[in-house]
Every structure is written in structure tokens, then in C-alpha cells.
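Question thread 4412

I'm putting together a teaching handout and wanted feedback from people who do this every day. The idea is simple: show students a protein as raw sequence, then show them the C-alpha cells that encode its fold, then repeat with a second protein so they can compare. Below is the first pair exactly as I plan to print it.
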Amino acid sequence: VDGGGNTLPVQALTYTVVVPQAITSILQGSTDVDVKGVSAVIATGLQNSNGTVESDTAQSDLQVASNGVKASTYTGTIQYILEDAGL
């Protein structure tokens, strides 16, 4: 629900992290992980990771639950936190 009382009917919010083939031995990405309202792993550093490698692309996909969504009606912010479970 935004400040104007409008509710965007979100069905799913998925996240994909693409990792270059050259570094898949130290970083693994994810494909279409649903992160709507839950914690989820979107990338995993493996045994030899040291915090200096980078993924290629990261993208999210927002799916709404109805066809009645009107353009320029909703306002809001998608907020996310990246967390290192090893810390």
C-alpha cells in the first residue's frame, strides 16, 4: 500500500544473479528466486571466495496478480538488504 492508499497486487518478485563462467568455482548465482516478503539466497560465495569477485548481471522481475493495474498509479520503494551469513 502506498501513501495514496493504492495497493499493487504483487504475485511474485523474483531475483536472478548471473555469474561469469570464469568464476563459477568461487561464486554461484541464482535464477528466478522468489524474494517477495521472505529472505532468500541469491548468490553464494564458495570455499575460495574472498569478497573481491563480482557477478555479471542482477535483475528482478515483478509479477502482478491482476490485469487492472494502471500506469502511474502506484508509488513506493523496493528495499533489499544484502547480508553475509558468515559474519
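The second pair follows. I'd like the answer to focus on this one:
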Amino acid sequence: MNVLEVKNEFDDRDPLYVTYDLSAPILNIDATFASGVEGTFTVVTACGVRVGDAVDELYLGVIPTEHMTDELLEQSSSGGFDDLLIECGEE
């Protein structure tokens, strides 16, 4: 799922979005994420802070979609990048 798709899914709840480009630790390349390019980045890890039934804050770890591979998708799906976002480790 890319960043725009995630934002569209949560649009009605209007959470605070914090997006981290994880290109350096995952791909060993410079981070390039910026506003306006959300559709070209794939979310590889995400977590949120809930207030009641609503998501109040949403933290996204992303990499450029052009670098996404089946191996990275599998690692992402199994939570392999969750430890790269400090917010995802908080309880």
C-alpha cells in the first residue's frame, strides 16, 4: 500500500501523520521522501496511537516503490521493519 492509499483509508478520522523514509537502513540509499510524492512510496511498517475507537496518530515507515521486492514485501508483512520506528515499540 502506498502512502496516499493509507491516507485515503484514514481520511475520515483525520489523524496526525508522521512519515519516515526508511531507505537508508533498509536499502542503504539516501532518503528522498517529500510532500507531493506520497504515491511513489510503499509503506513497509506502520503503527498508530488510538484514542477510543479513532486513530489519533499514524506513524508510517516507507521506501520508494521502485525498490520494493518480493523479499522486502515478505519481510514487511511479517513485521520485520517494525523495530525501525521507535513509536511502534512503545506501549
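Top answer:
Good format. For the second protein you could add a caption like this: Strands lie at 16-21, 41-51, 54-64. The chain has a mean pLDDT of 86.
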